[in-house]
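Project outcomes to date are best conveyed with an example. Our students and postdoctoral researchers have been running inverse folding experiments weekly, and each run begins with a structure described purely in tokens. The record below, which covers 340 residues, was selected by the lab manager from last quarter's runs and is presented without edits.
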């Protein structure tokens, strides 16, 4: 028995983190979210070059496709390989047969020139016709001038902004600093520490596994009036898994809730990337309704079409050799880990 759905949308991903697995332990055990950023992610992103970014994106796109995800909303940072990075990611996703909506997350962590170059990469990619958004890392690593510049560029180009908001307690000033800038087409990742009565406009991106892993707390997105969508924050591309976790986490604070709310968050992905509605995923299980999916781990896609083309058949990608992608990604991971 099989059932078919549209292609799933991962509304918040970091394809560059696909090579992090197996990286050497940081010099010191991170004891807070800020230290996780400093000792893991900000060391890793600074070591990336375009070849590593390419194979990281190939691996991440492959793993997404293998889980029925045909569209990835990616948020990228590579401070020592900024120029051209968005093309590399978009091309890798296209090669595998997955749609992408990319953004370069600007930051002043490397000085105002770093933010300027990040913004220029967003502008260059978008003006050339690329599918993307303007990226901001987060308010707490950006000056007010950088936040205004990113918001202004996005408005000029008619696209939204993809930004982390109040993921940890170090970013609780975000709503005050972003309040006047946000619009309905902004994507607000995490919002764990965002007050319920905030005034930010945009879609909130809930990343249950990442929030648990970073011990930042539970966003409880059902409390917001904003639209909510589901992401992985770089921990793979399995949106059904994000849905299952989102459901049981909501259940942990409200035993009366059913899986319908978390399922509606999964469906929001199709509002963000409407093209994915045209894609089809034939699943190993029937029916694909919220109650069944919530309690059936291991459901997998058998056949996926994207843009009318079969991109996964019998669980195997048709456009790339999965073994080769994994082998190349391992080589690049070894190069990356040697730099840390
Ligand atoms: Zn993120």
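After processing, the design step wrote out the following sequence:
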């Amino acid at each position: 028995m099989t059932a078919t759905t549209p292609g799933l949308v991962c509304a918040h991903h970091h394809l560059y983190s696909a090579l992090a697995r197996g990286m050497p332990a940081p010099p010191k055990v991170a004891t807070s979210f800020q230290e996780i950023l400093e000792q893991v992610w900000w060391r890793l992103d600074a070591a990336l070059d375009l070849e590593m970014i390419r194979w990281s994106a190939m691996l991440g796109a492959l793993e997404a496709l293998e889980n029925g995800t045909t569209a990835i909303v990616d948020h990228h940072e590579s401070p020592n390989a900024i120029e051209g990075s968005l093309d590399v990611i978009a091309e890798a996703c296209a090669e595998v047969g997955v749609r992408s909506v990319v953004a370069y997350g600007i930051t002043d962590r490397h000085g105002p020139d770093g933010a300027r170059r990040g913004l220029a990469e967003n502008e260059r990619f978008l003006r050339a016709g690329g599918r993307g958004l303007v990226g901001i890392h987060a308010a707490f690593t950006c000056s007010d001038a950088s936040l205004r510049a990113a918001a202004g560029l996005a408005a000029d180009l008619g696209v939204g902004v993809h930004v982390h908001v109040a993921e940890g307690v170090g970013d609780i000033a975000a709503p005050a600093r972003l309040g006047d800038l946000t619009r309905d087409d902004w994507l607000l990742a995490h919002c764990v520490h965002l007050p319920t009565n905030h005034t930010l406009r945009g879609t909130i991106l809930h990343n249950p596994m990442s929030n648990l892993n970073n011990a930042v707390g539970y966003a409880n997105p059902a409390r917001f009036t904003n639209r909510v969508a589901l992401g992985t924050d770089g921990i793979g591309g399995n949106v059904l898994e994000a849905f299952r976790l989102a459901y049981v986490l909501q259940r942990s604070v409200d035993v009366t809730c059913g899986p319908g709310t978390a399922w509606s968050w999964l469906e929001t992905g199709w509002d963000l990337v409407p093209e994915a509605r045209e894609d089809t995923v034939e699943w190993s299980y029937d029916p694909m309704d919220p109650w069944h999916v919530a309690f059936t781990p291991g459901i997998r896609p058998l056949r996926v079409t994207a843009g009318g083309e079969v991109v996964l058949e019998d669980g195997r990608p048709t456009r790339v050799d999965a073994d080769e992608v994994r082998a190349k990604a391992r080589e690049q991971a070894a190069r990356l880990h040697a730099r840390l």
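Residues 12, 14, 75, 164, 189, 233 surround zinc ion (CB under 6 Å). The longest helix spans residues 322-339. The training component of this project remains on track.
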